[in-house]
Amino acid sequence: MANRFKHTSIYLIILQAFSAAAFAEEVTEVQDAPTVVTVFGKGKTRQVQDITSVDIIKALPGASPLKTLEKLPGVAFQSADPFGAYEWSTRFSVRGFAQNQLGFTLDNVPLGDMSYGNNNGLHISRAISSENLGRVTLSQGAGAVGTASTSNLGGTVQFFSSNPADEFGVTGAQTFGSDKTSRTFARVDTGLLSSGTKAYFSVTRQRTDKTKGSGSQDQDMFNSKLVQTFGNDKLTAFFNYSDRKEVDYQDMSLEMTKRLGYQWDNYAPDWQRAVNAAKGIFTGGVNSLDDAYFEGSGLRKDSLFGATLDNKLADAVDLKTTVYHHSNDGQGHWYTPYTPSATGAPIAIRTTEYSIDRNGLIADLSWDLGQHAINAGVWAERSKHTLTRNFYNASGPQDTDYFLSNPFFTGFKQDFTTTTTQFYAQDTMSLMADQLKLNYGFKTPKVAIDAVSLVGSRAAGHIVASKSFLPQVGVSYSLNKDDEIFSSLSQNMRAFQPGVNGPFSQTQVAFNLSAATIKPETSTTLDLGYRFKRDNFVGSIATYYTKFNDRLIPVATCAGIVGCPSTFVNVGKVETSGLETAALWTLSQDVSWFNSFTYNNSQYKSDYLDNGKTVAVSGKQVVDSPKTMFKTELSYENSEWFARVGGKFTDKRFYSYNNDASVPAYWVMNLSAGYKMKSFLGLKDFSVQVNIENLLNKEYFSTIGSNGFTKSDPAGTEQTLLTGAPRQMFITIGGKI
User: Fold this and answer.
1) Which strands form 103-106's sheet, in the order they lie side by side?
2) Which of 183, 256, 260, 267 shows the shortest CA–CA distance to 218?
3) Whole-prediction pTM value?
4) What number of other Cβ atoms are within 10 A of residue 6's Cβ?
């Protein structure tokens, strides 16, 4: 470890001269500054950063807030669509930890790991409209011990919705753009009523075609939030509903892209060509059943409710209680040439069908004892999840953008009941007139899964992941009012997952062989950083080291559309060391320049066995883990005009475990510009905004691992890549009455 920190220190010295990460003393509104929107909390013992509503507003309306976070150091984000909301393609990683190894919450309510085919949550793009978000907090290394997540090996992302306004108002915005995009947003705020109540209700309707091929990606949403005060107590509640339908892009390989081009996609609406291909009659450069299918799509309906009661029990004692409910129905459709319909057509519709019904409670008790700020709490959740593989008759190019029923065959069906309990406690000590802060605490997660196999040969059984003591300690020391150093050490565990990518995706025989010895993934992370601010320059720099044990991966055993049971293997240890730094330079009252740089070295430290054969991955870079990333953004803003132009560099990424297959590094630039007026034709806060995504129309690979990662692919034939969206332009008109 000493050698690793020595090497990291060299990088720190080299880079300290030109970059650091922006911070402010508190999380505050910064509407008058063009880009002072990335804020750090002074005195925090962990690497914690915020994106405020200022950044979210300037982003493309409807864009995933995860895409907004990609400007921060340590963050890698990819998606095949310009909004970053197409869930099959969305990939969000921090410090080499993948999306399903991070934790996510909305207003304290857990969103699970937000992976495709999720079993215990939902994606943020379905949980709330981006227009209703007020703030997003990222903790790159480790979230607070009270975070409601059992997947946050790496870090946590906490989303916070905006509060209802104190004055009555109607807000609206209309977006038009490339590929027939139309997004309508409308929100009504009741204002503060005499009863102490205020609330808002909003509706969102988005329609857009894919950037290539045939099909659309549409969504309807309803959001609502209520705040009620009772003297010193406050009740906050929200209810959100989403109905999303998205047609898939075809998964590509390097070889396919060279042979068929970046714009290649599935056959729809050409049904006859899909039928011919299913019979082995290929045309137009196609030479395989898997070069294209007729179509694929995903459908999701979600209802999410959360209510938090803040009780002031005494002057120094507060109790915060959150209850929540989430229900989900989902289907993923794939026209498969590997299974004929019962009617005789050479193609059937293969579905993966999901349902989630989960309920939970989070209670947190806080004591302010002067030098000590103590809080302790408990999180409990019970989730029921059903996973089914069905096959339906396909008779032609009919619209199947709805939930199918009455299959002619069921491949497998599993029911999962997951029970989660987690207790936590921590103390933050303030010493030397708040110049020194010490934080120490622990959590005790326990996650039990009971699986029942109703149809098919996939596994059933009982499995538990638990730790009786996962500690977290941290310290921050203010050298003066403008300079601060901080450090933290934390341990985390990721629970086993039911559903598509967990140990129950194996056969019963394979599960029985591994169940007695399988261990949950764990990580130990050490952070060390320095924050500072000057009159026109603010920043910080952080270095980190993570040891990751018992990394579990599902290895695909056939083409994704066939859906064979996966092999679930332990690839052993992973070690990560790196540097995160960014800089915000205020060039003038109206102009600022933001930069961030990331160096991340994530390597496997153990070989693993797959079907008795050694796979030599020790010393190899972790898949989908770019070593370097760089973000630069120049902004201008005065009382009327604003503009931002930014670029992001992402280093090459491996998609094979032995590093013989990768996609090249790439730069992508985006532009946002607009005009705003306090009033116009009876409207308040009138604005016109233009967003151009992929400004230079770069061809690149965005998502990798869409069909999982492979051991080796020297020929570049593995279909697990998605291409990035071409240049897209959008215009938004908005205002209030």
Assistant:
1) 38-39, 48-52, 133-139, 156-161, 103-106, 109-110
2) 183
3) 0.92
4) 9
